[in-house]
Design brief:
This protein has one helix and no strands. By secondary structure, the protein is an all-alpha fold.
Length: about 70
């Protein structure tokens, strides 16, 4: 019986090592995905800021065109 237990333990030890490596890689990937999510969120903020600036430029351009009589209205 002891021989069977040793055989099982011999097979379980490498599996535990592999599981530890998989857990470490999963932790690393989770960290990387978190950083990517943060970067994507910042990109969305930047795009929103640019959109606001373009809207303001569009409004200013329309006012300038109106003052210079470049458009009707």
């Amino acid at each position: 019986m002891a021989e069977t237990e040793n055989l099982v333990l011999e097979h379980l030890r490498p599996m535990r090592g592999q599981l530890d490596r998989v857990e470490q890689r999963l932790d690393d990937l989770t960290t990387r995905v978190g950083r990517i999510e943060t970067d994507v969120a910042q990109i969305h903020v930047t795009l929103a800021e640019h959109s606001i600036r373009f809207d303001r430029i569009d409004t200013r351009m329309a006012r300038i065109e109106k003052r210079l009589d470049l458009v009707e209205g």
